[in-house]
Automatic annotation (TrEMBL):
InterPro entries: MATE_fam, MATE_MepA-like, MATE_MepA_subfamily, MdtK-like. NCBIfam families: matE (TIGR00797). This is Multidrug export protein MepA. Belongs to the multi antimicrobial extrusion (MATE) (TC 2.A.66.1) family. MepA subfamily.
Length: 449
């Protein structure tokens, strides 16, 4: 097929560094723009409605994370298999995987949304809401539960477009969605005075427009994505879910992170602590998307090389990606260290107690980014090469097991500082464990072409 003729020269004959950069830059820009969708909500809500409303949508944000997690679970699982099939020159199988994955995503999203909608009030309390923040959390949550399927379909479709050799269109889709989200947030909040509901609607509408843009990919002559006759396969479903599971756990871990930090901050710093964490959490979403973008950049490459049995190109790609992630992490840490005050001011004019807590939190928490990027890249590598158990272990350790363990112990020693340091220590320990694992594996399994 024509798609094979286009992919083979770039994926198999261009230098590994050149191919990596070709996917990295659009992926980073696209993910940054996706984070703008979330951060814009916080900036506009913080300035227009104040700290309580900001805390309310921060409490409801795990709902967004769950939808995003489902799209990554099935999207990355399906896209990995898609790229492997293309690397193996089996385009018919690739199209079947594409169709199967999108149908699964749509159906499962609807089922989860309907169920969660019925229990949205107890769900809001479980996520950390109290009488002050409940109205805002419910308002934001209701919109996301009603239209969340737009988020999952758009993100999954974007993954397939990127894996079909068109990372630039995926980037354009996210840029347009981000710009439109900013415009709509301003209009709904400051002109129509719609409150938190308006901010959520702005995100949904902007995401829908981004999804429409992705359909331009079907107009390309070298497009291999194609909807074929729908069918259901338990074997393909299980394989898709297995490969994508680390990404799902990663996003669920983000929800655990948000809930865990909200609960810990209420316990150790009260409502001011929750407001301070909400500011940090928005900044964290931006940085998280940077490292997620690095992982998204290597996933199509590793999957394709695995299908084409190009082991050496796999290894070169992951080495470049790890070095890029580590250097980027140091830059981000230094930025947080010296620009913490400016980051807090970006989200509004807060009481001095909230501002002081947030600035201190950013300076401590940002040490995590020296390790987080490496962990993201390695998790994606193990996932894309179907070493799922290792990928799951990395994700469970850094975002759930170790984090919860540190949240339950460090505050008794360091107070609020112990809360801020829980994630940095988790990331550091996981990076060290990955280094030991890879070193031992390379001794037992020599790298050959």
């Amino acid at each position: 097929m024509s798609q094979e003729k286009v992919l083979l020269p770039s994926m198999e004959t261009d230098s590994v560094g050149k191919v990596f950069v070709r996917y990295l830059i659009p992926s980073l820009i696209g993910m940054l723009m996706m984070s703008v969708n979330v951060v814009a909500d916080g900036i506009f809500v913080g300035h227009r409605l104040g700290a309580l409303a900001l805390a309310g949508i921060n409490i409801a944000s795990p709902v967004f994370s769950v939808f995003f997690a489902m799209s990554l679970w099935l999207g990355i699982g399906g896209a990995t298999l898609y790229s492997q099939s293309m690397g193996n020159k089996n385009s018919k199988q690739a199209q079947q995987i594409f169709t199967h994955s999108l149908i699964l995503i749509f159906v499962l999203t609807i089922l989860v949304a309907v169920t969660a909608y019925q229990f949205r009030v107890p769900l809001a309390y479980a996520l950390g809401a109290n009488q002050d923040t409940l109205p805002y959390a419910l308002e934001y949550m209701t919109v996301l539960l009603t239209y969340g399927f737009v988020i999952t379909v758009q993100n999954a479709f974007s993954l397939f477009v990127r894996n079909d050799g068109n990372p630039n269109l995926a980037m354009i889709s996210m840029v347009v969605a981000a710009v439109l989200n900013i415009i709509l947030n301003y209009y709904f909040l400051f002109v129509l005075d719609m409150g938190v509901e308006g901010s959520a609607l702005a995100t949904v509408i902007a995401t829908f427009v981004g999804a429409l843009i992705l359909f331009a990919h079907f107009l390309r002559k070298d497009c291999s994505l194609s909807f074929v006759k729908p069918y259901f396969s338990w074997k393909l479903t299980v394989r898709t879910l297995t490969i994508g599971f680390p990404s799902f756990i990663s996003e669920v871990g983000l929800s655990v992170f948000t809930i865990g930090y909200n609960v810990a901050m209420v316990r150790w710093a009260g409502t001011a602590g929750v407001a301070a964490f909400s500011v940090l959490n928005y900044a964290h979403n931006v940085m998280l998307m940077v490292f997620l973008g690095m992982g998204s950049a290597i996933q199509p490459l590793i999957s394709y090389y695995r299908g084409a049995k190009l082991r050496m190109r796999e290894v070169k790609t992951i080495r470049i990606a790890v070095a890029t992630a580590f250097i980027s992490g140091i830059v981000v840490y230094l930025f947080g260290l010296f620009a913490a005050g400016g980051i807090v001011s970006l989200f509004g004019d807060f009481p001095e107690e909230v501002r002081s807590l947030a600035i201190n939190g950013i300076r401590l928490f940002f040490t995590a980014y020296m390790f987080m990027g490496v962990n993201f890249v390695m998790m994606t590598y193990f996932q894309a090469s179907e070493q799922v158990k290792v990928a799951v272990w990395i994700t469970l350790s850094r975002e759930i097991i170790l984090m919860v363990l540190f949240l339950l112990t460090l505050p008794y020693i360091f107070g609020t500082n112990g809360v801020w340091l829980s994630i940095p220590l988790s990331e550091c320990v996981v990076t060290a464990s990955i280094f030991v694992y890879v070193k031992r594996k390379n001794r037992s399994v020599p790298i050959t072409e």
